[in-house]
Amino acid sequence: MKPPILITIMFTMVAGTTIVLTSSHWLTIWIGFEMNLLAIIPILMKKHNPRATEAATKYFLMQATASMLLMMGIIINLLHSGQWTMSKNTNPMASTMMTIALAMKLGLAPFHFWVPEVTQGIPMSSGLILLTWQKIAPLSILYQISPTINPNLLMPMAIASVLVGGWGGLNQTQLRKILAYSSIAHMGWMAAITPYNPTMMILNLMIYIIMTLTTFMLFMHSSSTTTSSLSQTWNKTPLTTALILALMMSLGGLPPLSGFTPKWMIIQELTKNEMITTPTLLATTALLNLYFYMRLTYATALTMFPSTNNMKMKWQFNTTKKMILLPPLTVLSTLLLPLTPLMSILD
Amino acid sequence: MTTHIVFVLSTIFVVSFVSFSSKPSPIYGGFGLIVAGGIGCGIVSSFGGSFLGLMVFLIYLGGMLVVFGYTAAMATEPYPEAWVSSKAVLAMFITGVLAELLVACYVLEGNEVEVVFKFNGAGDWVIYDTGDSGFFSEEAMGVAALYSYGTWLVIVTGWSLFTGVLVIMEITRGN
């Protein structure tokens, strides 16, 4: 894509999300969603092959349907409350439609089927934008309507998302599909805490974005898209191997690393609201996620798979790939746990 | 003008939507779009918005739909599916029309339908009062407000349309 066009498209994508984040009028929020959707389609189709076209089409159809549902919810809200601002969406039908529309945009179960297929059909860098930047706008609207969301609707979707994200990722060897199922599971965690303490949802989103950004960049650096090519990173850049180990443990939510902070905070907030079964269920099914992260770690850092001799000389060449911001991001995604007492400023 | 004109027009509106939602080939679907556009203009005009109704005819039908019609004619297939030539399309069309006739009869009988909001039958749509805007038509005031208070909206909408064209050119580039 020629640079001026790429700049325009990227600007529109960022502008769409910014308009969603900063609007008080429901119509401009909807316009922001549509601008974002329109602008990301050519980014998904950077390589013009039929797989990318199919992925872009699936993404477009799902998101357009969700936007239509959101518009219906907005109009029903207008009919019953008489105004276009965010403050009073107390009509249950409007609130339900908006929640379902936002769940479709995020890829929460049972609307999760598009996430692995779209992520698999697009290049790694497009998948990066899809799984991190595109989650910000719907989650900000979920944050703003969180007082009036029906928890009986959102909690089953959240629990189902964590389950689907865990079980779906178990049989995958393609890295993009693994990251897609990981995204579904993390969205489930975020949706679970939204009716009770939306601030923790923002915390989870921030840490999830940092970790996923780092993961994608490490995978892009070693140009690996499958587990078997990831198992050759010990030969390309041995340092990346160690970083992938730490990062996968952090994504799985293991304690001394920063991925544990959002899970800990979410379980704490849920138990403060006298829910016992839900956080137990969430924590237990997050183990499924941990299993396939561990499998990636095992293949990458803990084992050397047999390979032919001509695959053993890549370390001799200098890398020319640019790794923007990779060191700070890696530090942020693994070492933030001691800063958890800082969360008290959020009260 | 009868008080039920809006009700009749909206029933035909829904039927024309059904006619292209039952997925015939795009050339035939375009016909449904034309009818829907014309009826929409009628509905908007019967609420006093004569300017916007004629805008629909001029810009939507006469600009965008003409372009759609020509591109559909360029991309046509050798054996297009009409409504009667394919059993699937015919079945979907009949289902949609039956559902709409059911709702229409329900409204005409009971004079009130409550699905999501209370729809008080056809009489709900007659304009009884003129609002307090005095001698100015509300619709012309709305269009004027778009260019004075709604400048940001015009900028955003214009940018979105420009981006739409850019995106379509990028996607269909092919190399």
TrEMBL record, chain A:
Signal peptide: none annotated. It catalyses: a ubiquinone + NADH + 5 H(+)(in) = a ubiquinol + NAD(+) + 4 H(+)(out). It comes from the Eukaryota. It is an enzyme of class 7 (translocase). One of its GO terms (biological process) is mitochondrial electron transport, NADH to ubiquinone. Residues 23-286 form the NADH:quinone oxidoreductase/Mrp antiporter transmembrane domain. Its main location: mitochondrion. GO terms for cellular component: mitochondrial inner membrane. Pfam families: NADH_dehy_S2_C, Proton_antipo_M. Residues 290-343 form the NADH dehydrogenase subunit 2 C-terminal domain. It is found in: Mitochondrion inner membrane. Its EC number is 7.1.1.2. It is a multi-pass membrane protein. The chain crosses the membrane at residues 57-76, 96-115, 152-171, 202-220, 241-261, 281-305, 325-346. Keywords: Electron transport, Membrane, Mitochondrion, Mitochondrion inner membrane, NAD, Respiratory chain, Translocase, Transmembrane, Transmembrane helix, Transport, Ubiquinone. The keyword Membrane applies. InterPro entries: Complex_I_Subunit_2, NADH_DH_su2_C, NADH_UbQ_OxRdtase_chain2, ND/Mrp_TM. One of its GO terms (molecular function) is NADH dehydrogenase (ubiquinone) activity. Core subunit of the mitochondrial membrane respiratory chain NADH dehydrogenase (Complex I) which catalyzes electron transfer from NADH through the respiratory chain, using ubiquinone as an electron acceptor. Essential for the catalytic activity and assembly of complex I. Belongs to the complex I subunit 2 family. This is NADH-ubiquinone oxidoreductase chain 2. It comes from Crocuta crocuta (Spotted hyena). The lineage of its organism: Eukaryota, Metazoa, Chordata, Craniata, Vertebrata.
From TrEMBL, chain B:
The keyword Oxidoreductase does not apply. GO terms for molecular function: NADH dehydrogenase (ubiquinone) activity. Coiled coil: none annotated. It is a multi-pass membrane protein. The chain crosses the membrane at residues 6-22, 27-48, 54-76, 88-109, 146-169. GO terms for cellular component: mitochondrial inner membrane. Its main location: mitochondrion. It catalyses: a ubiquinone + NADH + 5 H(+)(in) = a ubiquinol + NAD(+) + 4 H(+)(out). It holds the Pfam family Oxidored_q3. It is found in: Mitochondrion inner membrane; Mitochondrion membrane. InterPro entries: ComplexI_Subunit6, NADH_UbQ/plastoQ_OxRdtase_su6, Nuo/plastoQ_OxRdtase_6_NuoJ. Signal peptide: none annotated. Belongs to the complex I subunit 6 family. This is NADH-ubiquinone oxidoreductase chain 6.
